[in-house]
């Protein structure tokens, strides 16, 4: 059958092949045949599946889950060379191009696409053309697959603590076990717990260096915390998505983060609800690095990242001052303003283009579909 097919391609109505949960996906299969052929049926499958796998000291932990499945048989509108009636239920495809449109609606509570080091959740469409013969996996057929991405919905208005402020503080000794240099106190505070994609988070923090050792630098980072589940255990990993740096703090000195802005890239919403084997959480983490041989001091606060903002008028969405108001141009990176003080200079690091697009884009060639 393959020797008669010159081209077989699946085309989506959205050029980026990215859809929101609850949206209808439109597309068509494009088949170019070199010579006339009969087709018994064309089957379309839209599948969403999650898989996790990691290695322990004794074995390999793995699990999988299907989160979405839509299967349908597409109508065949082929005709004979002379316009004769089709033979039985088979379709006659003349030489040239043929288009087979399809559509399906994604459920409202579908989880987002995701790809991590030890697991992923992906969506794809598979179109199978069966020639006349046995309608089964073993019969004559040819198939194509094409991936698409889904952005799940998380309404912050349904999260009871999304509008509440969050805060954390610490009081820790600085130095090695044989030479303590003193203590450092720190407090990290956010106006609220819930934010949406591409929003800028105003960060307030205060670090008091009560030690005799200089603090080399401080950072505030957006951290993605992922937990994978199998039938016999779980595994967690953390990834730093965006980091903002500040300068040093002298001994007996103080440093203040006065609502510096930390922009949220395009990432899956918190929780990844609808998937039982992958859970995603986010946190803002203040990190203090003393000079010399001393461990870093880390101070985290948990946050929620959603897709629908809070309706309370006092919780307005904060956009970065250098980011376009519509937020559509993901090719321009938002950078915070620089302060006048050299020690308090703010700059971004660990930020690249892939942080601004879905974590599981449908155009990744290295992720083969079995």
From TrEMBL:
InterPro entries reported in the protein's UniProt record: Arrestin-like_C, Arrestin-like_N, Arrestin_C-like, Arrestin_domain-protein, Ig_E-set
Gene Ontology BP, a term: protein transport
An example Gene Ontology CC term for this record: cytoplasm
Domain Arrestin C-terminal-like per the UniProt entry, residue ranges: 180-310
Pfam families xrefs: Arrestin_C, Arrestin_N
Family: Belongs to the arrestin family.
Name of the protein this chain belongs to: Arrestin C-terminal-like domain-containing protein
Lineage: Eukaryota, Metazoa, Spiralia, Lophotrochozoa, Mollusca
């Amino acid at each position: 059958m393959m020797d008669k097919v010159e081209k077989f391609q699946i085309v989506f109505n959205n050029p980026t092949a990215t859809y929101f949960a609850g949206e209808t996906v439109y597309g068509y299969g494009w088949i170019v045949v070199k010579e006339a052929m009969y087709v018994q049926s064309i089957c379309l499958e839209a599948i969403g599946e999650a898989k996790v796998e990691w290695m322990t000291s004794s074995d390999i932990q793995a699990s999988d889950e299907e989160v979405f499945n839509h299967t349908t048989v597409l109508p065949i509108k082929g005709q004979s060379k002379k316009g004769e009636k089709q033979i039985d239920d088979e379709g006659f495809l003349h030489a040239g191009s043929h288009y087979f449109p399809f559509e399906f609606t994604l459920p409202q509570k579908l989880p987002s696409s995701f790809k991590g080091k030890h697991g992923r959740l992906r969506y794809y469409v598979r179109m199978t053309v069966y020639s006349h013969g046995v309608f089964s996996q073993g019969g004559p057929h040819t198939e194509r697959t094409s991936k698409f991405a889904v952005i799940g919905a998380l309404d912050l208005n349904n999260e009871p603590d999304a509008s509440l402020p969050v805060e954390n503080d610490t009081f820790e000794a600085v130095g090695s076990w044989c030479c303590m240099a003193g203590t450092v106190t720190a407090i990290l505070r956010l106006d609220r717990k819930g934010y949406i994609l591409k929003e800028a988070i105003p960060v307030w923090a205060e670090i008091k260096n009560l030690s005799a050792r200089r603090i080399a630098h401080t950072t505030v980072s957006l951290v993605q915390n992922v937990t994978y589940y199998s039938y016999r255990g779980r595994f967690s990993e953390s990834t730093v998505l965006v980091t903002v740096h500040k300068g040093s703090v002298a001994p007996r000195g103080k440093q203040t983060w006065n609502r510096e802005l930390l922009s949220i890239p395009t990432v899956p919403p918190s929780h990844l609800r609808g998937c039982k084997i992958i859970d995603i959480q986010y946190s803002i983490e203040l990190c203090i690095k003393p000079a010399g041989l001393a461990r870093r001091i880390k101070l985290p606060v948990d946050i929620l990242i959603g897709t629908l903002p809070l309706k309370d008028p006092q919780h307005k969405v904060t956009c970065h001052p250098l980011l376009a108001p519509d937020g559509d141009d993901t090719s321009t990176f938002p950078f915070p303003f620089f302060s006048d003080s050299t020690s308090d200079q703010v700059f971004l690091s660990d930020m690249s283009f892939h942080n601004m697009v879905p974590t599981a884009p449908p155009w990744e060639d290295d992720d083969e579909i079995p």
